[in-house]
Design a protein that fits this description.
single chain; alpha/beta; Rossmann fold; four-stranded antiparallel β-sheet; 9 strands; 35% helix; globular
Length: 208
């Protein structure tokens, strides 16, 4: 696993059609720091997050993901990060437990039954881990994505509207997890319109 991740945004711009969503973004986010990307719907928050993840390409500029003074290539970048997004699809015909087991095996991560049960307990799914994900509410699916984040333990967290569809208890859980992640030296980037999520940030980018 890659640790001590820093993210360098170097003159990053993105153009859709004839319109620039954002231009000339330059910033360095180091391990243990948090960046909040804010702005109205359609301003490019999720697009910028996808560019950092390597799922989209900037029109100009570059994203450098660095670990232990080494710039990671595309494959290494994928191994360094965890992405929570509405577009991340869970397997509806697997249980919560089976989803975690599948994705950790896909990532080459050892994860036994006791560990998975603990991750589910920490996100409030202890009694639901053996249920098919198709029976989960949207909030439960969001909690399961965070259980996966705990299991994968990436150095870089990319969170797109992380408290979406969560109740008050779920939002409190997410705040606690973000706080613990920063204490454990994770680098966290959040695309959000929630002021309380942005309170974790060392840096903010407001898109328009």
């Amino acid at each position: 696993m890659y640790r001590d991740i820093s993210v360098n945004l170097v003159d990053v711009s993105k153009k859709i059609g004839t319109r620039y969503l954002f231009t000339g973004i330059n910033l360095v986010i180091n391990a243990g720091q948090c960046l909040a990307i804010t702005g109205p719907n359609g301003s490019g928050k999720s697009t910028l997050l996808k560019i950092i993840a390597g799922l989209n390409q900037p029109t100009t500029g570059a994203i450098q993901i660095i670990s232990n003074n080494k710039q990671l290539d595309a494959e290494e970048r994928r191994g360094s990060l965890g992405l929570i997004s509405p577009e991340i699809i869970l397997y509806a015909d697997l249980t919560g437990y089976e989803n975690i087991l599948f994705f950790t095996r896909l990532c080459g991560i050892e994860c036994n039954q006791q560990m998975i049960e603990e991750y589910c307990r920490r996100v409030g799914l202890a009694n639901d881990k053996e249920q098919l994900v198709r029976t989960y509410s949207t909030g439960m699916r969001q909690r399961l994505k965070f259980a996966l984040m705990l299991a994968i333990q990436p150095g870089l967290w990319l969170l797109d509207e992380p408290s979406s569809n969560l109740d008050a208890d779920g939002k409190k859980l997410i705040a606690q997890m973000i706080g613990r992640g920063l204490e454990q030296n994770a680098t966290i980037i959040i695309a959000t319109n929630e002021p309380w999520e942005a309170e974790h940030a060392d840096y903010k980018i407001e898109l328009v």
